[in-house]
Amino acid sequence: MRVARVSGRLSLLTESGAVDVESTSDGRFGADPDTAFARWDELRDWAEDRSDRDAVPYPDEQLGAPVLAPSQVFAIGLNYRDHAAESGVATPSTPAVFTKFASCLTGPYETVRLPSDGVDWEVELVVVIGRHAEGVAEQNAWSHVAGLTVGQDLSERALQLAGPAPQFSLGKSYPGFGPLGPAIVTPDELANPDDLELSCSVGEEVLQKGRTRDMVFSVPELVARLSAVCPLRPGDLIFTGTPPGVGMARKPPRFLAPGTTLISTIDGIGQLRNPLTAR
Ligand code: ZN
To answer: How far is the CA of 64 from the centre of ligand 1 (A)?
Structure first.
């Protein structure tokens, strides 16, 4: 199942187009995508039994962030060995956790305003929680995941690294710093949800390319470790970290330029295309 926000409304994406969930379910489910996760299993059962006949084509521009009002957004720093190495730090022995404040979430094709000339790219697999998770064991973790989507953990490096203690959460939460989408894909749609190729590029130039099997802490491990402390609620997000190739680690460092479009891709899930403008 692929679930998206089309013209602001909860929709299933099929090969023939988008199916509006509220109208085709005769009001059984609401139109607000953020309300879907509390009844995720029910939505899946309903979606399985229906045909494509109510699907209508839609332009990409109608797609918004599939989640806009999560109760919590977790993000994991340094979760790929080679990214930790390029950042000049040891591989973490425990996840480095921060938050992206929810006001930074934006759609898969939205224009993002760069607040400075020091904004960096980080393509990431994003986990959407589908079931209340508290003290969940690793082997049961996937059953608490609604699905996976593509995210960008845009980062203003000067603010992120300013002061006596780094400001990861604030430096990564300017408006538009959390592009998300284009759809939430349930794990059963993917050949191997533990090994997905992810990449990001500007124009023809590939900036990052990696595989999620190289994460230091896998999706099940992250769900287990986070839910050991914080109860995870349906709709909560986990940005799982970025592979090597960020601009800050380059010599000389390099950052995003206005007038370009940042493209972020995860095979089997989809692609974000975010044009960038100056402040
Ligand atoms: Zn990140």
So the answer is: 21
